[in-house]
Write a structure and sequence with these properties.
The protein is α/β, with parallel strands linked by helices. It has 2 domains: about 290 residues, 3-Layer(aba) Sandwich (Rossmann fold), CATH 3.40.50.11440; about 55 residues, Alpha-Beta Plaits. It contains 10 helices and 17 strands. A 9-stranded mixed sheet has the order 1-17-2-16-15-8-3-4-5, sandwiched between helices. Strands 6-7 form a two-stranded antiparallel ribbon. β4, α3 and β5 form a beta-alpha-beta unit. Helices cover about 30% and strands about 25% of the residues.
């Protein structure tokens, strides 16, 4: 192994990030071997935080154009060799028509995995209602994370960093905060109001009344009415309402999104007892000869790995000033919440 440190003299070393450049077309077996070596290298102490017989979640994201599922296999194999019990994990989605339940989500995961026998679990249950409420402290909002996060002995969070209109960059912090949230948690990220009734589509079938767990829906003269003071934003009504009679406005702003995603990421991180390894894939500018370039980042600090991703993308001209500003604001809030450190020491690794 050849590791060449590249230190920034104006930065205090507070977190460590490993960088594996990938230039040109690399055989999957070779890339898997490199990931394996980095995770297994004794000095990096990445997977060494997990002990034998622990169930360790491997949390991918399904962003495009980079597929985090491509990196699941070497991580699963490495965890298995260490005596842990690895499982690919995900949560249900906030939308009515996409990943409506845990079964649909599991089917989508299975379709993208090379080994269809890979163990999988949906951490918030079939309907996304199995959740853990973590009360906010120091002015942070409450967080609703997937209930089975508490059953894991740790997690490997595999992210494919891409531009995001609310976060600036969707990376490890967003994958922790949104990706490990329950359905209600996801709704809190992206909706600033309770659901509303489309009067022209409501046929007074009363299904939503029967399924509302807090009796927040009443029958009006010609359509149902939602009591926003009583509504808990569980999303059940939009699942059962016919003809799209009830829906959310996904109207979140960056100012709304930042504290919510930070609170959820911190809640998941603390519930996992900080036993988290982050792997982030970045698409870089092609080399001078036209060869494709990627970068794989490894760290135990979700804030530091996102900060490193921002710097690398910025150096390659792949982030606008507005995206940098949004991401920096999110990372500052995450650092203030105790999720990690923005300052980092990056070490370039080659195998």
């Amino acid at each position: 192994m050849n590791a060449t440190p590249t230190l920034s003299p104006d930065r205090a070393v507070t977190a460590r990030v490993r960088l594996l450049p990938v230039i040109g077309t690399v055989a999957p077996e070779q890339l898997a071997a490199s990931i394996d070596h980095i995770l297994n290298f004794r000095a990096f102490r990445l997977l060494r935080i997990f002990t034998q017989r622990e169930v360790v979640g491997v949390k991918p994201c399904l962003n495009r154009p980079i597929r985090s599922l491509d990196y699941v296999a070497p991580v699963m194999e490495m965890l298995g060799r260490r005596g842990a019990t690895p499982v690919v994990c995900d949560t249900t989605d906030r939308y009515r028509d996409v990943n409506r339940n845990g079964i649909n989500c599991m089917e989508e995961l299975a379709a993208g995995l090379a080994d269809r026998g890979t163990p999988m679990v949906i951490l918030d249950g079939i309907r996304g209602e199995h959740e853990l409420l973590v009360r906010g402290t120091n002015g942070q909002p409450d967080a609703h994370i997937a209930g089975e996060v508490a059953s894991l002995g740790g997690a490997v969070v595999i992210s494919c960093a891409q531009h995001d209109p609310l976060a600036g960059l969707s990376g490890a912090v967003v994958n922790l905060g949104v990706g490990l949230a329950s359905k209600r948690g996801k709704i809190e990220h992206y909706a600033m109001q309770t659901p509303h009734v489309h009067q022209d589509k409501c046929y007074a079938c009363r299904r939503c009344l029967r399924h509302c767990p807090v009796a927040a829906i009443e029958m009006g003269e010609s359509h149902v009415v939602i009591n926003s003071d009583r509504c808990v934003n569980c999303g059940r009504c939009i699942e059962v309402a016919r003809f799209g009679g009830i829906s959310y406005d996904w109207d979140a702003t960056p100012e709304h999104f930042r504290p919510v995603v930070t609170a959820h990421a911190k809640a998941a991180f603390d519930t996992l007892k900080h036993r988290v390894v982050c792997l982030t894939a970045l698409n870089m500018m092609p080399a001078a000869d036209g060869e494709p370039q990627m970068a794989l980042l490894f760290s135990r600090d979700p804030v530091a790995i996102d900060a490193a991703a921002v710097d690398l993308l910025t150096e390659n001209g792949l982030m606008s000033a507005g995206e940098q500003e949004l991401t920096q604001a999110m990372l500052e809030q995450a650092e203030a919440a105790g999720l990690g450190h923005k300052q980092y020491d990056i070490e370039r690794v080659a195998f």
